[in-house]
């Protein structure tokens, strides 16, 4: 039996395996398409430093092709919330417009018509990371409707470009069907993407709205407008025009590099000796640290990096991980949400009695700095669910699917909450935000975060710190409650005793018991 | 601010995002490496039709480089079962040898040194599907140890080839460092892969052994031998030399194709009219069905497929999904485990009191036929865990990670088990096996299966059918139990009454009460 070996393109790979990119079924596909394009838009306005205006319109085009299935009984309808029954998927037209940085004309076709092509393969905190999302949405539209997509973009220069494109899947290359150039008289800047796709909006609706709500919560400087196929308008208005500190590109931290990364640096370095090599290519390595490290590692300072042998490269990586005196990664390249913003968002959505917050010190995994922020909210509008509620965010985007596999959920499940006076029937919501130059997603669909040990540790410690704050609050509330009861007993009986004693002593005015009550108080209520 | 756009290779993509391929941390990496190579070996012997002999040796090479972290208190050690603390990762040498079909010499470098290259991009039930696993293992070894890998293979011809290879990650091409050719005097056939990698065997051990145990359970015709770094030998011996019916390659079923698939067929078809086109390229479409369908779809039978307009192609796909008279996909291309084999495996491992089994009719999703098999076992060695135990298999390999995101787990969690007289504290284990020409994994690491609606339906119906069998067993056992109690009451008092009556009547011999007892029996015990 002869085996036929073949090579497939990256686009073909994701076409064959669209499940792994979040395009599992008609409802997920419509959710993922909106999500990927909104995240591109938000990234594009981080780039331009102008508060984003994002306009999303989903309109009904015609009846779709996929068929439902008959075998399920009515009793089990609740099992199929992700949808294959009842409504047939329909064909929709999706348009997402933003006022972001725009895509340079020569890159438009590849940016939307080729997978593994993009501007996000940098050490920088961005929402997109895989260089896949936009193209996957268009590709899904193409394989379900066989129609081209329209991309209109300008970087604010003299021209606006409009491309009609499709994806050549076997070759992973864009096909340009048509190109128009308009004069940009009004100095417009931004990107508009429009295409048709099969989907199931009825099933996807609640997730899409939840996604937009949570996105608005952690991006309070964005205006987001969504018009759904029934013409309903959902508007998420900005509460500030102040943009957060923009994320910066950074170099790899020495604790996180592998031999492949070193080799790539060696291939391009202009440095002629190891001191310069260390200083120029690594995050937080200065002249002094460079000298100290090379002595520690036993690697000659004057060696030309290009002449390093294999064994030396392995040793270099090994010693980088062992050396204790590298400074921790600098958080200035990251843009966490911050206590103020996160608390404001939580207050707006949940109106809790109490919020604990903890921003962990920056840490690093595989050369990528990251910061974990945790908030725990108690009471207010948080529902009692016999379980804790978890909101997950990564680089300012909400993660909605596959919670149970997420590192944060797994940690929450294994913490001994009784130690923090928490029982699962309390109204408690936990928010975990991880920002990093590279979020360790476990699926290309960006649904959940892998169990990287360093991330696990930071999330755990963040939750514990916030939980301790909550514990102090709960303990105090308990004391206050006990004290209130004790005082209420005193204030119930003291006046009677005072009155009785007064009568017994034959006096007219009972003594002032306020002072007495005050003296038995143990805690002051605030 | 100028954005730099760039294109990266598929190997570079998976190097940057190794989390999504199952190489998250040193313990997962060592698990995934063994798993991927074992699955390649099993596939290679399906190919050669000779019962597999798989030999795995993991040996300690030297201390690794990654560092632990100090911040965790002892109290929380249990939280870190996936390991980052305590033991530093070490460098191991892994060797996996099989007697499978072997890889043709000219394909060896690409098969192990290039991602998205392989022999498994067919419509055929295989364990590997992504053309990634073997190369990812070698790539992980390379970036942690900077060493080449050795691949020795022969297809049983006159020569044995030995390649020293590395992966050129930025270009996604193999680098051949050396090649040796030996004379194959003894007619050896098979493949041996050997390379070094950083890992944490102490943390990975229990999963590796569980994986091998479950693999042996569903591949009872395989001999698997594993020598661990401490020299301990684990041997899983075959119980049969009979190989299962081999999976066959098949054509796409019309219910599952999209416009891209049609276009690809049009590009290569030798057919000059639509009747032939339908007949030759689709699963279960014969002359008659072809005619009927084309009439239903309103597409001319004599049209040359290459002349189909875009709108016609979309219509063709749409009508394919609507046409009710296509035969369901033929199961003969699939190789399910079968009732006999699955029950034997369960009996061996769990010794339950009762096993319910259900093999569903073949179904299809996106053009891929699949079969779901479900077994529910009760009692015996199954632990009472206050939750049901789930074993998941896909194309005869066990899935161990991320259970909570798997379609089967989600269905089990939402079934109303009381309806089947099942309470969660009963000792119950559920086994779900899905075999398909393409398993809809959601991660490239093959950890869990996506919520494809068609798959969801089959798994649900399979579990319900098996659950009904279990219900009948439980109901019967309950009756038998009640009857046993009732009879035991009779048999306790009847002799006394008989004796008393005998004495009262002044007789010597009490009457025979056996007949009497028999007459009150409602059910016969078997």
Topology:
Two copies of one chain form a homodimer.
Chain A: E1 6-7, H1 10-16, H2 26-48, E2 53-63, E3 90-98, H3 108-113, E4 117-118, H4 133-145, E5 149-155, E6 159-168, E7 173-183, E8 189-199, H5 201-218, E9 223-227, E10 233-236, H6 259-268, H7 274-281, H8 287-297, H9 310-322, H10 339-350, E11 354-359, E12 363-365, E13 368-378, E14 389-394, E15 397-399, H11 407-414, E16 428-436, H12 453-504, H13 514-520
Parallel strand pairs in A: 2-9, 14-16
Antiparallel strand pairs in A: 2-3, 3-8, 5-6, 5-8, 6-7, 9-10, 11-13, 12-13, 13-16, 14-15
Helix pairs in contact in A: 2-4, 2-5, 7-8, 11-12
Overview of this protein structure:
Two copies of one chain form a homodimer. The first copy, chain A, folds into four domains: 10-64 and 86-236, 2-Layer Sandwich (Heat Shock Protein 90), CATH 3.30.565; 254-322, Helicase, Ruva Protein, domain 3 (Orthogonal Bundle), CATH 1.10.8; 333-473, Ribosomal Protein S5, domain 2; 475-520. In chain A, 36% of the residues lie in helices and 21% in strands. The first copy, chain A, is built from 13 helices and 16 strands. The first copy, chain A, is globular. At the A-B interface, strand 1, helix 1, strand 4, helix 4 and helix 6 of A face strand 1, helix 1, strand 4, helix 4 and helix 6 of B.
Summarize the structure.
Chain A is α+β, with helices and mostly antiparallel strands and 526 residues long. Chain A has 13 helices and 16 strands. Chains A and B meet through β1, α1, β4, α4 and α6 of A and β1, α1, β4, α4 and α6 of B.
């Amino acid at each position: 039996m002869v085996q036929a070996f073949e090579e497939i393109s990256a686009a073909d790979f994701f076409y064959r395996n669209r499940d792994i990119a979040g395009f599992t079924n008609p409802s997920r596909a419509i959710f993922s398409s909106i999500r990927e394009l909104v995240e591109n838009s938000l990234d594009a306005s981080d780039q331009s430093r102008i508060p984003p205006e994002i306009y999303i319109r989903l309109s009904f085009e015609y009846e779709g092709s996929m068929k439902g299935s008959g075998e399920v009984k009515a009793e089990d309808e609740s099992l199929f919330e992700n949808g294959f029954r009842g409504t047939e998927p329909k064909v929709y037209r999706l348009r997402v417009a933003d006022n972001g940085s725009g895509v340079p004309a020569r890159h438009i076709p590849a940016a939307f018509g080729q997978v593994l092509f993009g501007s996000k393969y940098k050490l920088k905190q961005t929402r997109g990371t895989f260089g896949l999302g936009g193209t996957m949405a268009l590709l899904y539209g193409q394989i379900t409707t066989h129609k081209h997509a329209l991309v209109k973009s300008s970087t604010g220069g003299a021209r606006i470009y409009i491309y009609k494109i499709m994806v050549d899947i076997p070759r992973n290359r864009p096909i340009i069907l048509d190109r128009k150039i308009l004069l940009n008289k009004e100095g417009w800047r931004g990107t508009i993407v429009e295409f048709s796709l099969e989907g199931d909006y009825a099933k996807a609706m609640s997730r899409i709205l939840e996604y937009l709500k949570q996105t608005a919560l952690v991006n309070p400087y964005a205006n987001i407008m969504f018009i759904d196929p029934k013409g309903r308008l959902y508007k998420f208005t900005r509460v500030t025009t102040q943009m957060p500190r923009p994320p910066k590109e950074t170099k790899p931290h020495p604790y996180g590099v592998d031999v492949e990364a070193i080799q790539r640096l060696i291939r391009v370095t202009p440095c002629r000796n190891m001191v310069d090599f260390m200083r120029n290519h690594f995050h937080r390595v200065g002249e002094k640290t460079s000298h100290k490290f090379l002595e520690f590692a036993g690697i000659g300072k004057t060696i030309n990096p290009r002449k390093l042998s294999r064994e030396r490269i392995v040793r270099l990586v090994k010693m980088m991980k062992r050396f204790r005196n590298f400074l921790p990664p600098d958080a200035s390249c990251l843009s966490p949400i911050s206590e103020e913003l996160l608390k404001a968002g939580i207050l707006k959505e949940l109106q809790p009695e109490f919020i604990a917050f903890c921003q962990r010190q920056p840490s690093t995994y595989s050369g990528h700095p990251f910061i974990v922020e945790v908030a725990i909210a108690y009471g207010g509008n948080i529902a009692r669910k016999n379980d804790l509620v978890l909101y997950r965010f990564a680089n300012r985007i909400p993660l909605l699917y596959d919670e149970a596999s997420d590192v944060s959920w797994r940690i929450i499940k294994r913490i001994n909450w009784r130690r923090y006076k928490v029982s699962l029937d309390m109204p408690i919501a936990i928010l975990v935000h991880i920002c990093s130059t590279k979020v360790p997603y476990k699926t290309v669909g960006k649904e959940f975060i892998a169990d990287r040990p360093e991330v696990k540790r930071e999330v755990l410690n963040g939750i514990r710190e916030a939980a301790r704050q909550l514990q102090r609050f709960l303990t105090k509330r308990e004391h206050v409650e006990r004290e209130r009861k004790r005082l209420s007993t005193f204030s119930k009986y003291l006046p009677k005793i005072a009155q009785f004693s007064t009568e017994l002593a034959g006096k007219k005015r009972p003594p002032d018991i306020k002072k007495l009550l005050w003296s038995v108080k143990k805690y002051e209520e605030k």
